[in-house]
Amino acid sequence: MSHSVPVFDPKLDLVLERVVDVPPELVWAAWTTPEHVKVWFTPAPWKTVDCAIDLRPGGRFFTVMRSPEGQDFPNTGCYLDVVENRRLVWTDALLPGYRPANDASGGPGMGFFTAMILLEAQGSGTKYTAIAIHRDEKGRKIHEDMGFHTGWGKALDQLVAHMKKK
Amino acid sequence: MSHSVPVFDPKLDLVLERVVDVPPELVWAAWTTPEHVKVWFTPAPWKTVDCAIDLRPGGRFFTVMRSPEGQDFPNTGCYLDVVENRRLVWTDALLPGYRPANDASGGPGMGFFTAMILLEAQGSGTKYTAIAIHRDEKGRKIHEDMGFHTGWGKALDQLVAHMKKK
Known about the structure:
The structure is a homodimer. Helix content of chain A is 25%, strand content 38%. The mean pLDDT of chain A is 93.
């Protein structure tokens, strides 16, 4: 079966593109294993204190982020496209089992978003592309102001540092 | 890759289950071919005057329904799960390419919904299950009051009558 081609819209979407020196298989493992996610997913001093993954289209991607003050922020997403070592897509617009969600988990006013992680082998490393797809320009702006680039970049640094120990 | 198992929740979902005397291959063709959709999709005297299908996860399912008074109602959905002759899942909570949608296309107050068509061979016919999955009880109620069972049932009668001519 053919798969969807992501179409990047600079007015609505945010993108982080980097080359990292761990191979796609390790980046994939970092994103799809709760034990790894708990270590690297949240830029310090935030923590990820819980994670559950049902890795298939329609399956659950659940995390709980804890603020430095000790407040917990649960997030529930639904996987949409799962291609091992290549592409991981999920959204908070749907709950697991594809049920439309009531509330966006990303933050006040941001609205729902869909995330795509695209991996491509490059030498012994990985060309890493993270895309956040919003329904409107307001959602994109709020996500950007919340610190998308810094936050996702710092989390990626933590991912690489963690997986290099493997 | 394993696929999602639909979980029916009677408080939130609506279901139409019937056995029809055309085989799954013909029901599948009826649902996935614009020329067929335009013939059977809307209970008369409504008409379906346009249809576009990009049959893959993330692809577009587009229809325009025309009321007896001549008003057009365009609907855009995104396919989520496509298993030939077995299972077709789409939602209006996402636009094609998995972008979160701004407005539900189902009708005032109904909210987004996800539709699943499940097909199973039964003798020379098909066990046909259509499930409409809502985010809350209100959405289910509004969809039911709009005439889900009558409307989807009448459309299915039209589908069977049309495909029997093939």
